Amino acid sequence: MSDGDPFIAELLESTSSWSASYVEYVTGKDREGFAAYAFIEDDDDQIFYQHALRAYDSICYLGCGGKSGVLAVYEKLTEENIADGQLFFVDRDTDIEPFTCWPNVNRTKWYSWESHLVRPEIVAWLLPRRLTPTPAPLVASRIARGWLSTIENYKFVLAKHTALLRTANVLDQSIGMDSVQVVHPSLRVGDTVSPADNAPLWFDEKVSVLQGMGVSAEDIERRRSRYATGRPLDQAKGKLLFQILRSFVSHIICTLDATLIGEFNSARAVVSLVPWDHTDLDYIREYTIRRLQAV
Length: 295
Fold this sequence. Notes:
Blueprint: H1 6-12, H2 17-28, E1 36-40, H3 46-52, E2 59-63, H4 67-79, E3 87-90, E4 106-107, H5 120-129, E5 131-132, H6 137-153, H7 155-170, E6 186-189, E7 192-195, H8 204-212, H9 217-228, H10 232-235, H11 238-256, E8 259-260, H12 267-271, H13 282-292
Helix pairs in contact: 2-4, 5-6, 6-11, 7-9
């Protein structure tokens, strides 16, 4: 496909992120010398995938403006038989169905890439190493247990949040869930953090919005009950879990009268602190190896 192709000309006029990434790939793949192109949802994702794939330093990352953009590029390149050897990364979000329509797209093991940063084994390894003075082993164990208890305390809130997100996604509607503040105010007792007593009221407005779309309160409650029986760290929104982790870290610092080394305010800042070769990231590297061998 050449720069004179009418389809390319049309895409060059488009403001779509995935269109720009498509053009950059088809016009540059034969001259730019990259081992592969990685199509990601947004530019923020690059820092995570670069970290997980630091052994591969010749990958060009292209943001596609969201999950649908990555899938659009994948479908277009597959249709043109030029997708082999390239990488496609998307978040799982609230998807529960098998990903059979996009067999060569990598979907995060949990809700999103931020979900990797809140895993108990990661928090237990990372947090004691970022505190000064360094906690004694028994204190480090307390921190790990405190994080697990904190997630348990938020289980109802996380299940309701995920149920509302899933319901909106099924309807292909946005109901502004990012505006729901579930971390502040919070209750801090012992080594744990809990949602405020009025937490159930935080979701009333969003429930009303969904009811206006024809969804019954009973349907939402049934979905919430199903999520409540699952594992919050596996299914809740990654960015929300990280917000809870930040609140927990702030509480632990005060409890231990410790100082935090470095920044812990954003997921982007924390990514580089996680061991790049951690086994939780193996599935990303295994996918990459398979794709690079598909050329």
